[in-house]
Write a structure and sequence with these properties.
By secondary structure, the chain is an all-alpha fold. The protein contains 14 helices and two strands. Helices cover about 65% and strands about 0% of the residues. The chain binds fe (ii) ion (FE2) (2 copies). It comes from Arthrobacter psychrochitiniphilus.
Amino acid sequence: MAALNGETMAENQPVDDAGQANFDAVIAKDSRIEPKDWMPADYRHALVRQMSQHAHSEIIGMQPEANWITRAPSLKRKAILMAKVQDEAGHGLYLYSATETLGTTRDEMTEALLAGKARYSSIFNYPTVSWADMGAIGWMVDGAAITNQVPLCRASYGPYARAMVRICKEESFHQRQGFEILLELSHGTPGQKAMAQDAVNRWYAPSLMMFGPPDADSPNTSKSMAWNIKRFGNDELRSRFVGMLAEQVKVLELELPDPDIRFNEDTKSWDYGPLDWAEFKEVLAGRGPCNAQRMERRRAAHDDGAWVREAAAAYAAKQSASNDREAA
Ligand SMILES: [Fe+2]
Ligand SMILES: [Fe+2]
């Protein structure tokens, strides 16, 4: 079967004046593009890139937390963490399915990830060294994800926007469970409070960098905004997120490791200290603390799951053969 990836489809797509006019009108009235509508090649390509990267992030993102399921401090915490990790698998599946509507198969996306050609969020290349990291990840990493993803519920591509509605509901729950872990630790023994503070210190800057580079260094942002895929720039979302953390950290009675956080009355947004973009680029280039481990685990899981895929394919073939016989 000929490979139908977003790029090949985009390259072979004929120019269609009526299609372009319809697309422009839909974007202008802030309505939705659906899979069967004609769309410009660049739009399709940008969506495949963003959505598949998002799907991969959900799947790789299961690893740092799954690492703590067996060591969660109580049965209740284990059950909650297990449910959260399963939710992330579900998010990956919705997003792979939504991306498939653009003409790229899940197998192709998986192949690109395993071959190291596709990216996932660099946040998941940091290690989870204590139980408090489960709190910090829920509060900050899922919190950053929500800040980023709520506006995507209004993205112009229908299947993406609809997947995002359900994902955001679950992410809100994830954030609350993380906050609650930190709240309990920060009001526990001095040792527990120190563990919570240490986790917040380590996850703060990487979570701010989840919004991507400053807008000035983010070549895709303006196009995505013109197409109503993205609604706000990276810097605006990051600043909003800092404001949310700055308020909630007071309830936790912890501190954010950034003395420069303040509300700027002139710009009506939150200021924060400089971020280490050199580190961000290193992690993105595959040289973060856990990049190799994450990919190795993902490849092993893929290999271990081969028999499940074969069995499912054999079962589906059998079912369709028997359906054909019944129809005949
Ligand atoms: Fe998720
Ligand atoms: Fe989540």
